[in-house]
Amino acid sequence: LSLVGAGYFFGGIFRCDAGAPFVGSWRTTLHNIFGGLEYLGAAGAFTTLKRSAFWSPLPEILAPAGIFVFVSLLGMSFPHPYRGLVQRVAETIIFGGIVLIGWWVYRASA
């Protein structure tokens, strides 16, 4: 999950060019690299929760979400009219998953 935070932070610092071209200035390149790390980090974290009994039953919800986030990353890799929508849906799933993980940790420690 650290990749998610770092990717989101640095992806916001290095804003992409107008029109969000896949290839653009050095800022767009860094934005895409850090954004990719965010998506890979979320997909990896969500799909590997099943390795520990502590997280049960979260993997039943988050493993498919992780696969969707990874497929979304692939879907944003080429230009199409719905690329922004795919990004917004994937970001919503990522933040929802992080909130769910935080709630789970809070519940377990209470």
Q: Give the topology string: H per helix, E per strand.
A: HHHH
Largest sheet: none
Q: Quickly count the helices.
A: 4
Number of strands: 0
What class do helices, strands and sheet pairing give? mainly alpha
Question: What is the CA-CA span between the terminal residues?
Answer: 22 Å
Mean pLDDT: 91
Q: Tell me what portion of residues adopts beta-strand conformation.
A: under 5%
Uncertain runs with pLDDT below 50, 5 residues or more? none
As a percent range, the share of helical residues equals over 70%
Structure description:
With 110 residues, the chain is mainly alpha-helical. Helices cover 73% and strands 0% of the residues. The chain has four helices and no strands. Helix 2 packs antiparallel against helix 3 and helix 3 (58-75) runs antiparallel to helix 4 (83-109). The protein is elongated and about 45 Å long. The mean pLDDT is 91.
Please tag this protein with its features.
110 residues, mainly alpha, 4 helices, elongated
Topology:
Blueprint: H1 2-13, H2 26-48, H3 58-75, H4 83-109
Helix pairs in contact: 1-2, 2-3, 3-4
Tell me briefly what this model is:
The protein is mainly α and 110 residues long.
